[in-house]
Sequence to fold (270 residues):
Amino acid sequence: MQVTFLGTGTSHGVPVIGCDCDVCRSPDPRNRRTRSSLYVQSADGNAALFDVGPEFRIQALSANLRRVDAVFLTHGHADHILGIDDLRRINELQGGAVPVWGSAESLAAVRRSFAYVFDPGPPGPTCPRIELFEFDSGRPIRVGGLSVTPLPCRHGSLDIHGFLVEADGGRVGYFPDCNGLPIATIERLRGIDLLILDGLRPEPHPTHFSLSESLAAMAVVGARRAYITHICHRLEHEATRRILPEGVGIPWDGLRIEVGRGLEAPSESG
Ligand SMILES: [Zn+2]
Ligand SMILES: [Zn+2]
Ligand SMILES: [Zn+2]
Fold:
């Protein structure tokens, strides 16, 4: 399967509005981070989109994304759902509604934030056509050749979800907002090919793993390869890359990785 990092930034994005720090003023494009989102396509062409942030349109154009068979929401925070209106173009391309899977809380956030979709009133601007489906924690959902299993994680005081994605003989874990993995989730992720985990910044944070906490969690899981994500302007790309241990990377928006059958090991490109 092919994994594309559509966005790798925290809720503010990088650069931060009005910030003059070295990272926000950096000429290195890898220091420009849109809000976190992941796109996974299996060898049979089926595609799952994980979260739909406010820059979904820009991300879709950059990645030449044309197909979304299902959307999976980690939780209902604004930086993970506010791009849903731009699924209109996916409706046009595919000629149908897009299934959106989430917890009861995430789907309630979608109904509140996009009330006009569910109570359109008189004909006016076009609405995205989405069908909401509540998932059961731990129960896999099939999207063609992809199997997507929601697994619980902590996000400050909230219990939210990340996902185990299995396809083409490969396993990928995606937990962009997380500061704690329950034992049962760790057990499901053991020895995973690729773990993408919240690694906000060097300092501790009440709702996100710091870099060192993220690295410790990756080691506990025993991921064969791992990337941090949901990164803020406190982590400069090149300086961070140099200090990361073997097997752990710092991604950039647009990075594509192949995972699974036919490959000796996940390879980096893009
Ligand atoms: Zn977030
Ligand atoms: Zn800054
Ligand atoms: Zn969040």
